[in-house]
């Protein structure tokens, strides 16, 4: 039986020497010797040298740059600020939208916007033009207070000339009382 064990070990060493890959020798089965069971010593694993080129790393996907101004999931894709009847104050619910656009302008010094003031068709044409201008100026002032450059923002009033809705209802009029944020080259 000892000859058989020695033959197995010699064969394993011979195969390991001939192989191009390192082969871990399997532990030999326990050998009985006069009622004492002995195990073959466990092979010691040698740490493999680090070779960064050999390690398999997941390929990084190129990041797609999505324009935040057109991404529907981004607040910057929202471009209208709505006002109450005969008012030009930015309502609290639209402040985060104004802040987001002001922050975008501060971080993109070459970006320019036109704030287009609008009004519903109640009131005279002249009054609605002035109201649209006050609304656009109100949004501009809020953006300026948030560090957006004055040179990046232009205001214009369309008064009642560019309605979104033409029905004579409060729901429709509320859609026409707004400032639209239009970025240059869009």
Describe what is shown at a glance.
With 186 residues, the chain is an alpha+beta fold. It has helices at 2-18, 95-107, 125-145, 170-176; strands spanning 31-33, 36-38, 80-82, 113-118, 153-159, 178-183. Helix 2 (95-107) packs across helix 3 (125-145).
Describe the structure.
The chain is of the alpha+beta class. The chain has two domains: 2-38, no CATH class; 75-183, OmpA-like domain (60s Ribosomal Protein L30, Chain: A, 2-Layer Sandwich). Helices cover 31% and strands 15% of the residues. The protein has four helices and six strands. The chain has helices spanning 2-18, 95-107, 125-145, 170-176, and strands spanning 31-33, 36-38, 80-82, 113-118, 153-159, 178-183. A four-stranded mixed beta sheet has the order 3-6-4-5. Strands 1-2 form a two-stranded antiparallel sheet. The protein is rod-shaped and about 115 Å long. The relative contact order is 0.13. The mean pLDDT is 83.
């Amino acid at each position: 039986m000892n000859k058989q064990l020695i033959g197995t070990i010699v064969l394993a060493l011979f195969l390991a020497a001939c192989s191009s890959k390192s082969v871990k020798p399997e532990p030999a089965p326990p050998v009985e010797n006069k009622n004492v069971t002995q195990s073959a010593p466990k092979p010691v694993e040698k740490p493999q040298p680090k070779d960064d080129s050999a390690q398999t790393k997941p390929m990084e996907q190129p990041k797609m740059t999505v324009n935040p101004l057109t991404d529907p999931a981004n607040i910057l894709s929202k471009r209208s600020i709505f006002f109450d009847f005969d008012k030009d104050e930015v309502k609290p619910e639209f402040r985060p939208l104004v802040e987001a656009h002001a922050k975008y302008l501060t971080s993109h010094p070459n970006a320019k916007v036109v704030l287009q003031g609008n009004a519903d068709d109640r009131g005279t044409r002249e009054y609605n033009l002035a109201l649209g201008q006050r609304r656009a100026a109100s949004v501009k002032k809020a953006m300026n207070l948030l560090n957006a450059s004055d040179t990046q923002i232009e205001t214009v009033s369309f008064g009642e000339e560019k309605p979104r809705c033409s029905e004579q209802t409060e729901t429709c009029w509320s859609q026409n009382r707004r400032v639209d944020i239009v970025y240059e080259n869009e």
